[in-house]
Amino acid sequence: MKKERPQTNNRDRAPSAGHENGWMSREDYRQKTHGRRRPSRRERRREQAMFDWYGTHRGAEEIVAQRSSFDEIGDVLKETFSRFGMQKAVVLEEIQQSWADIVGQDVSRVTRPSSVKADTVEVEVVNPAWMYILDREYKTTMEQNLRNQTGSKVRNIRLLPAGRRPRE
Questions:
Q1: Dist. CA 151–CA 119, nearest whole Å
Q2: pLDDT at residue 155 above 70?
Q3: Which of the two residues, 112 and 89, has the higher pLDDT score?
Q4: Maximum separation of any 2 CA atoms in the chain, in Å
Q5: 132-163 in b/e burial notation, b at 16+ Cβ within 10 A?
Q6: What span, in angstroms and rounded, lies between the C-alpha atoms of 124 and 110?
């Protein structure tokens, strides 16, 4: 004897696992890209229902409003780097981007942040005379500005001659 399966209507079915981001999201063929990425039959019917209900112009607006929002690429990269244990690379990139603001234009021309180890950023200095001046007169100010910029993720600065960075 054959067991009868209860008949269910598509409307009774719970949304699939891929659609929790937005019920109008196009995720049925998400593995396809570019020209091959077209809406599935179910997605087309859903979009056509929105056009029938709201009209041509407002239907398009409603479809966009019901889809999940996109994430900023910077946020996605930070999340990916943190997932793979590369938070130091993100912190170093942030420091390099704002280095002129942290230390000033003149000092940024003769220095370059090269790596982050624990809570210390290693900074390469072009010549020993500048290294002496920075170490004696500006290091505490640079460290304070660095703490303010990074939210105390990095607290110390280690000055090194350019090209003499110790091996990791």
A1: 11
A2: yes
A3: 112
A4: 93
A5: eebeeebbeebbebbbebbeebbeebebbebe
A6: 8
Q: Are 154 and 119 in contact (CB under 8 A)?
A: yes
Return the pLDDT at 140: 92
Closest Cα to residue 157, out of 104, 127, 112, 90?
112
Which domains does the chain show, CATH number per domain?
Answer: 18-66 (no CATH), 85-161 (3.30.300.180)
Give the pLDDT score at 151. 86
Smallest Cα–Cα separation from 165: which of 120, 135, 101, 133?
A: 120
* Rounded Cα distance, 133 and 129, in Å: 6
68's tokens? 């999940």
What's the residue count for the chain? 168
pLDDT value at residue 106: 92
Residue 32: the pLDDT is 63
Report phi then psi at 45, rounded to 5: -65, -40
On average, the pLDDT of the chain sits at: 80
Tokens found for residue 101: 């603001």
| Phi–psi pair at 112, nearest 5 degrees | -155, 120
